[in-house]
Amino acid sequence: MLLQLKHISRAYGKKESETYQVVLNDISLDIEKGQSIAVTGPSGSGKTTLLNLAGSLDKPDQGQVLYLDQDITRLTGRELEQFRNKAVGFVFQQHHLLPQFTLLENVLLPTLPNRNAGGAGDRAEELIKRTGLWDHRDKKPRELSGGESQRAAVVRALINNPAMLLADEPTGSLDYENSNQLFDMLLEFNRTDEVALVVVTHSPELARRMDTIYRLKSGKLDMITE
Q1: What's the whole-model pTM score?
Q2: In CATH terms, is domain 32-55+76-224 a member of 3.20.20.80?
């Protein structure tokens, strides 16, 4: 098993306060290598919190997060940085490309902490060509369309060859055509590179393209069978 969330709970606020809110309540999730998973649910149900826990951007109040049987909640700050940089790729609703850098430079940013990333340039060229962005490699983000910027964000997330790609509403700011193109690209990398893919989406149509669909509601995570 690649990643396991085991009996995870997460709440915000102080228990005695009126703002205390249980977001995740004793949930478990197994993610296998090369699997594709959609997480659906109403706004505010904790879908982003779930991704943040899977990617070690947050820690649970209770439970374990196991990556290749290692509990990542016990890692030090430096070890967590290395885990996030090498094992996980993140894609968000907004591309977060740095405006002062070109597309190629943005893609290469995650490789900078890795002193042994000698093949980073070749990897970047391969990914940029695979996603149809090679002719735009020297453009700044302001010169790119929304779809091109989001594809560049996916390439950046994949540059360190992660085992798992976590995408939080990656098509939320795109139109119908660009949404489908981006999903096509994510699923292609999922199949050809065996990258585990976990996508938060409000789109039932896009969710049905994944291997497994879960619904998060009222702190509980349930598999949807149709």
Answers
A1: 0.93
A2: no
